[in-house]
Design goal:
The chain has about 650 residues and is α/β, with parallel strands linked by helices. The protein is about 45% helix and about 15% strand.
Length: about 650
């Protein structure tokens, strides 16, 4: 019979001649009845620490006496403390500052308890037999803490160093708090990723290491580091990274054929750890040529909390976000008003999900209202039944080319709808009303823009009541709103269709939906009597550049993977947008994140008379009459177009004027 050959257990089999320590630790941690083995090992370490302390304290003494009484007292006291504090139930693989805190506490409590035992017990357990007892007691506590903490941190480090070899290698851009937190989550959680290092432009961080990962260079070294370190993915973890730098990172990633993702800003991470689950694709709003605007949320909550809030157009992009923010701000009752039952239903579903997820801790009655703002009778019933105190009027037709085809519909929805809302609000219990307007109302070249300019004047014509705060909010294009340029281009890119542009030189101001809604809410908090609030939107974006960025965000190459077709300017479109009229820019005042333009004088009675004639023309379908009255009410609408200048040059002039105002 052949003699059996000794073999290591499978988990202990070395890849070379020596078994690595981590495999031994892994073997120990997988043993059955590990919960019994761990306290036994701890008690052995406690005994070793006590013996070590005795040797250190009395190693040079000729006749130190027997260490046995001291060792017995230490083991008894430490065992009582160990099981009282339930240290045997703490995890070795996930030891953290909390486990360290309990170990330190047990070390501090142990010294006086050992001293007490040695004091009260008879010979040979007597403290009097010890020379300088304070030295041996403090030494024992130090060795106790060193051994118990050391074995835990060693087991944790060795066990976590045993990672698979096929992990996805991630390079983190930003060695600040967010980047280090992300590295910690990658290292400490079971996942299929491996952080290889950081890139950071901070000179003080160069050649340093954080969490065992080196800062491998500056952000401009991205392509070299990707090649050298075999990086498979890049994650940007910097809060205030300039859009032009992010755009360059995307370009470098595209040239290196690796994906670039981003850890969202802090506002998106409230209540969420900055880990891999929070990492998302780079979005268009990350590339806006200005930092996202911060608003005073406490001031907003103060006037919405406990109120009945009515949002017209509650199923739209802006309206539904207004509903969400009003809910978070503590509204007691929320009226979601819309003409289309599908959009209102979807908004209700979204709000219900917010309630279920527990994003707010108060009860709010959410009431859907299917109503057309043009229907004065139904709208009046809503005001009389629910008595709203705050009204956000977001219902409007907004598509420029369609409203050029249907000017009567633009008048009925935008002008008549606004007049109904404002008049009923001024007659009732409403304390604040905010109208959502657009930069297309400034020097309008479209029917839609002209009707929105008239709605702003309707607001100014109803500012008589002293206790009635009524203002307009004017902003540019909203990223992600239904039917806007970004979703349209995105749909074309996803279908691998050519992206259509009206004019390569066309420029627009852009903002995000949360920014737009926060501006509306902030304007309501500040209040006023007909003033126009305009967000300081920074510099405009060329639509051609926007198309290039969107194509790159999808991992494609402009004009190679996706063609860009120029189809020409559509009816009513402007080459550039303005934020303030010429008269407004003279007296506009800078308040925090926005400009406030004072009301312009006009004959209120004559204006309202012409508005009613315009509405009658719209209801009767008289398009020529409607356009004629629009020209009377908004003379800029029918003025000849400006000479053909470069749009960016004109906008630069507008921005310079705004800087003078500020």
């Amino acid at each position: 019979m052949a003699k059996p050959v000794f073999s290591f257990p499978k988990i202990l089999r070395p890849q070379g001649a020596v078994v690595p320590a981590r495999y031994f630790v892994d073997f120990i941690l997988r043993l059955p009845r590990l919960e019994i083995l761990k306290p036994i090992l701890d008690l052995i370490l406690i005994s070793v620490g006590a013996a070590w302390a005795w040797v250190v304290s009395y190693g040079q003494v000729t006749h130190p006496g027997s260490p046995l009484p001291f060792l017995i007292a230490v083991v008894v006291a430490r065992t009582l403390i160990y099981f009282t504090l339930k240290l045997h139930r703490t995890s070795w693989l996930h030891v953290s500052r909390f486990e360290v805190m309990w170990l330190v506490m047990s070390a501090l409590v142990g010294a006086p308890m050992i001293a007490l035992l040695l004091w009260v017990l008879p010979d040979p357990f007597t403290l009097n037999k010890l020379t300088r007892p304070e030295i041996i007691l403090s030494t024992e506590a130090a060795f106790y803490l060193l051994l118990l903490f050391g074995v835990r941190i060693t087991a944790r480090a060795l066990a976590h160093s045993k990672r698979p070899h096929n992990l996805r290698r991630i390079l983190i851009i930003g060695a600040g708090q967010k980047g280090r937190s992300l590295a910690y989550q990658i290292q400490e959680t079971g996942n299929s990723y491996q952080a290889v290092g950081f890139l950071d432009d901070d000179a003080a961080k160069q050649k340093r290491s954080f969490r065992g990962l080196k800062v491998l260079g500056r952000i401009s070294d991205l392509r070299d580091v990707v090649l050298r370190e075999d990086v498979q993915e890049v994650v940007v973890a910097i809060d205030a990274l300039a859009p032009e730098h992010l755009r360059q990172i995307l370009t470098d990633g595209e040239q290196s054929a690796i994906p670039v993702r981003i850890l969202p800003p802090l506002r998106e991470l409230i209540g969420v750890r900055p880990d891999l689950k929070a990492v998302r694709e780079v979005r268009m709003e990350d590339l806006l040529p200005r930092p996202e605007v911060e608003f005073d949320t406490a001031e907003v909550s103060a006037y919405l909390k406990g109120r009945t809030v009515l949002v017209t157009g509650g199923g739209g992009s802006i309206g539904s976000e207004l509903c969400r923010q009003a809910l978070r701000a503590g509204a007691e009752r929320l009226l979601v008003l819309g003409r289309g039952e599908n959009s209102v239903f979807e908004a209700l579903q979204d709000l219900s999900d917010l309630k279920v997820s527990g994003e707010f801790n108060h009860s709010c009655e959410i009431i859907p209202i299917i109503c057309d703002v043009r229907d004065r009778v139904a709208l009046k019933q809503t005001f009389e039944r629910y008595h709203p105190e705050v009204v956000f009027h977001a219902a409007a037709h907004k598509h420029v080319p369609l409203m050029e085809q249907y000017p009567c519909e633009a008048v009925k929805n935008n002008v008549l709808g606004t007049l109904n809302v404002v008049e009923l609000a001024s007659q009732g219990h409403v304390k604040r009303l905010v109208l959502v307007s657009t930069d297309k109302a400034v020097a309008p070249t479209s029917v839609m823009g002209a009707t929105k300019r008239i709605t702003e004047m309707i607001i100014q014509a109803h500012r008589m009541r002293k206790d009635f705060n009524i203002v307009c909010v004017r902003f540019g294009n909203v990223l992600g709103s239904r039917g806007s340029v970004v979703p349209t281009m995105t749909r074309q890119i996803q279908r691998r269709m050519p992206v259509t542009l009206t004019d390569p030189e066309m420029v627009r101001f852009f903002m995000t939906i949360p920014e737009a809604v926060q501006l509306i809410l902030q304007a309501g908090a500040v209040g006023g009597h007909g003033e126009v609030f305009v967000l300081d939107m920074g510099r405009p974006v060329r639509i051609l550049d926007l198309a290039h960025d969107l194509i790159k965000l999808h991992g494609l190459v402009p004009e190679q993977d996706i063609q860009i077709n120029i189809i020409g300017k559509r009816p009513g479109e402007k080459m550039y947008e303005e934020l303030l009229t010429v008269k407004e820019s003279v007296s506009a005042e800078k308040r925090g994140p926005f400009y406030v333009a004072a009301t312009q004088p006009f004959d209120r009675d004559e204006f309202l008379h012409q508005v009613r004639l315009l509405i009658r023309g719209g209801e009767e379908g008289k398009e020529e009459e409607v356009k004629r009255l629009l020209c009377q009410l908004v003379p800029e609408f029918c003025q000849p177009a400006l000479p053909n200048k470069q749009p960016l040059q004109i906008v630069e002039h507008v921005i310079n004027q705004a800087m003078v105002i500020a």
